[in-house]
Structure formats: structure tokens, C-alpha cells
Amino acid sequence: MNSMTQKVARFGLLTALALVLGLVDRAIPLTALLGGAAPGIKLGLANTVLLYAVYLMDWKSAVLLMLTKVLLSGFLFGSLTAILYSLSGGVLSLAVMLLFRKHPDRGALTGVVLSLGAVIAMMAKNPNLRGQRLWYTVLIAAAFLACVLFYAAIRKGKIRGVPGTSVAGAVAHNIGQVLTAAAVLRTPQLLSFYLPVLIGVGAAVGSLTGIVAERVFQALRLHPEKIEGSQE
């Protein structure tokens, strides 16, 4: 099997895997489990496939994989509006991950700053946290601590940094979607009410998918830094 055939076969497998994980994402009622205050929240399992592409494929293949996943997923399971939101989030997320893949500590640091800012913003609006807002604040605070640990571990060389890149990408994805929603619906209030929640939750789910991707790389004995270097 020549190299081109291998690339096509790998691309097809990754596309299929991303679609399946996206379908699993839709089946997990994360919004309901978190009280329903922030609709549209997902675990972002398909992001583990995109992380693979970011680290182990060239940037053109990563972009093509993201576009293919967004379009196929939208036509099969969603709508044109869903495609618009997914595309805006996907483009910003992929751009950020490609930017931070060589500096994952900066991605983790971005998660630290933004999740801390999200907690402060939520507490400033309502110091007496109760019910759903309390659960979101606890979740975001946990994401903040996870990002601090990622940053320290990356700086000390204990992990390769995939979680740091994942956090930055997940947060960027949510920011892209909220900005698009605010523009399309002409509701700038989303930026003050909804954005802090999605930034914090993005840091939380990005931490989770980053850990999963890091584990997968370890299990398959893949070395992103070596493969990445060979693409320069």
C-alpha cells in the first residue's frame, strides 16, 4: 500500500470515527445532567480525533478533516444553522490548536486565565451562588485547577502537552459558537450571560478530552513531537 493510499484510508477512518463520536456526544444528555441552564453543551468527544490530526497529520489534512466532519455531521444529524455554528467553532478551535501545538503550556495557561475569569464573572453577577449556577461554578473551578496542573506538568516535562492544546481548542470552539449566535440572533446579551459559562465548561471538557487523547497517544506509542517535526 503506497503512502497516498494510506493517507486516504486513514482520513476515511478518522472521518468515520469523528462522526460516530459526534453521534455519541449527541446521545449524552450533558445539558440535562448540568441542570439545563446552558443548552448545547457537549463533551466534545470528536475533538480527540481532531487532536490526532493536529499533532500527527499536516495542517491541510487537519483542516480538511474538520470541514468534512462539520459538513457531514450537519447534513446527517443537524441543520444548516447547526453547520454554521459548528463551522464557526471548528475554524476558531482548529486555528488555536494549530497555534498552540508547539507551545501547549501557553494553551494550558490560556485555560487558567479564562476559567478563572469565568468564575469571577459568574460570582460578580450573583455572589450568592445556588442551584445550577453553583454547580457550574464548581465545575469551572475544577477546570481551573486542572489547567493549573496541566501547565505545571507541561513545564516540568511530565506530559507532552496534548491536554493544554485541547483546553485552548475547546474554549475557542465555544467562544466561536457564542459569537456567531450573538451575531445571528442579534442578542449581544449572550456575551455577558452565556459566554462565561461556556468558557468555563469548555475548559472542563477540553481537559477531559485532552487527557483521553494523551492516553491514546501513550497506548499506541505515538510520539507527536517527532512526527510533527518531520512535517516542517
Characterise the protein shown here.
The chain has one domain. 81% of the residues lie in helices and 0% in strands. With 232 residues, the protein is mainly alpha-helical. Helix 6 packs antiparallel against helix 10 (195-219). It contains eleven helices and no strands.
Rounded to an integer in angstroms, the radius of gyration calculated over CA atoms is 17 Å
Shape: globular
Q: Number of domains in the coordinates?
A: 1
Give the biggest beta sheet.
none
Mean pLDDT: 81
- Cα end-to-end separation: 24 Å
**Unreliable residue stretches:** 226-232
Structure summary, number of beta strands? 0
List keywords for this structure.
single chain, 232 residues, mainly alpha, 11 helices, 0% strand, disordered C terminus
Break the fold down into its secondary structure elements and pairings.
Elements: H1 3-27, H2 30-33, H3 47-56, H4 59-77, H5 80-100, H6 104-125, H7 131-155, H8 162-185, H9 189-193, H10 195-219, H11 224-230
Précis, in short:
The protein has about 230 residues and is mainly alpha-helical. About 80% of the residues lie in helices and about 0% in strands.
